[in-house]
Amino acid sequence: MRETDGQRNPHLTSFSPLFQPPALTPLDPATEASLRATIDGKAKPPGSLGRIEELAVQLGMIRHPGEPRGEKAVLLVFAGDHGLVAEGVSQYPSAVTVAMVMTYLAGRASANAFAKANGMDVRVIDIGVAAELPVHPGLRDAKVRMGTANAAREPAMTAGQATEALNHGIRIAIGEIKAGADIIALGEMGIGNTASSALLAHRLAPASLDDCIGVGAGQDDAGMSRKRIAIEMAAARNDATAPLDVLIEFGGLEIAGMAGAILGAASQRRPVIIDGFISSVAALLAVRLCPEARGYCVFAHRSAERGHDLVLNALDAKPLLDLGLRLGEGTGALLAVPLVRAAARLLTDVASLDDVLAGKI
Ligand SMILES: Cc1cc2ncn([C@H]3O[C@H](COP(=O)(O)O)[C@@H](O)[C@H]3O)c2cc1C
Ligand SMILES: O=C(O)c1cccnc1
């Protein structure tokens, strides 16, 4: 479905539920106690592997009655542009989005380096870059439109486009899992997307607008006041709070793609690793659309971006790492992959203390 860019389409989703999320199985709390008992019974003092034990329980619940695997992990980087950039919300122009997409395809971005260090593939998805991109074997064309409209002045996208972007994310994650991925990690590229994310966090957490606005890729004082004014203009234009409406009003396409990928991974009962502020906002959107998705999300790290903590709190999430990262691209998610793999192996590979003491090993 393709609709005219910038078309005003303030459908109230409560009357017109265009988006049909996939059926998700909630994690079964009845399996938690037995997984904990199994991990407590391993050849180590109970609790001695701290947060990795909690992660192992979560992975066990996700795959129950099967066993978790962590071999094949794939990073999906969703790229899209933001009309809000016209208001000066970012220190950088939208041209940086396309330049970084070309850098991912050349294998030379931070995300590629971290993926290579972990033996992972990177897939780049053009879901809404505001430029025609060359055909490239590493690039998926899922372009919904050439960037969002300027949300300070009009809805970022139509209801049909929001639905299309969510469905692309669902389809792409399911495709990767059917092709053998055990773990999906998420990343994004989109100049201006911390402004869009601030608006989504404000309405979906909910939280005061001011608490959701941060420096993004690095704004100076003058830039921060432009960013605040543009965000306040966008917020004053509407009072949407329903998740699909908030996405339609504020964007972005890459955030919708990530939210869809979370729902797609959850529908296939696979863990999905959430990166920083922007990815966590996508997780908040996914969870507001489908609360059962929460159990499938592993939160990689605490970003230095203001607003991330409140989004994590709204999701009742405790991230694994705290490294002062504020890049995005999936860099934090990539760094958490070895922890997820190790937690899966704790469950599948480590002997029980009973077997060790009985001399069975
Ligand atoms: C060279 C460069 C590479 C990036 N990689 C990720 N981001 C990050 O910064 C952007 C969000 O910040 P803002 O809202 O302030 O524009 C997103 O593209 C995000 O992925 C980058 C930003 C830049 C400049
Ligand atoms: O935490 C993030 O995801 C982030 C923060 C700043 C800029 N880009 C991404």
Automatic annotation (TrEMBL):
<keyword id="KW-0808">Transferase</keyword>
<keyword id="KW-0328">Glycosyltransferase</keyword>
<dbReference type="InterPro" id="IPR003200">
    <property type="entry name" value="Nict_dMeBzImd_PRibTrfase"/>
</dbReference>
<comment type="pathway">
    <text>Nucleoside biosynthesis; alpha-ribazole biosynthesis; alpha-ribazole from 5,6-dimethylbenzimidazole: step 1/2.</text>
</comment>
<keyword id="KW-0169">Cobalamin biosynthesis</keyword>
<dbReference type="InterPro" id="IPR023195">
    <property type="entry name" value="Nict_dMeBzImd_PRibTrfase_N"/>
</dbReference>
<comment type="function">
    <text>Catalyzes the synthesis of alpha-ribazole-5'-phosphate from nicotinate mononucleotide (NAMN) and 5,6-dimethylbenzimidazole (DMB).</text>
</comment>
<feature type="region of interest" description="Disordered">
    <location>
        <begin position="1"/>
        <end position="27"/>
    </location>
</feature>
<comment type="similarity">
    <text>Belongs to the CobT family.</text>
</comment>
<feature type="active site" description="Proton acceptor">
    <location>
        <position position="329"/>
    </location>
</feature>
<dbReference type="InterPro" id="IPR036087">
    <property type="entry name" value="Nict_dMeBzImd_PRibTrfase_sf"/>
</dbReference>
<protein>
    <recommendedName>
        <fullName>Nicotinate-nucleotide--dimethylbenzimidazole phosphoribosyltransferase</fullName>
        <ecNumber>2.4.2.21</ecNumber>
    </recommendedName>
</protein>
<dbReference type="Pfam" id="PF02277">
    <property type="entry name" value="DBI_PRT"/>
</dbReference>
<dbReference type="GO" id="GO:0008939">
    <property type="term" value="F:nicotinate-nucleotide-dimethylbenzimidazole phosphoribosyltransferase activity"/>
</dbReference>
<dbReference type="InterPro" id="IPR017846">
    <property type="entry name" value="Nict_dMeBzImd_PRibTrfase_bact"/>
</dbReference>
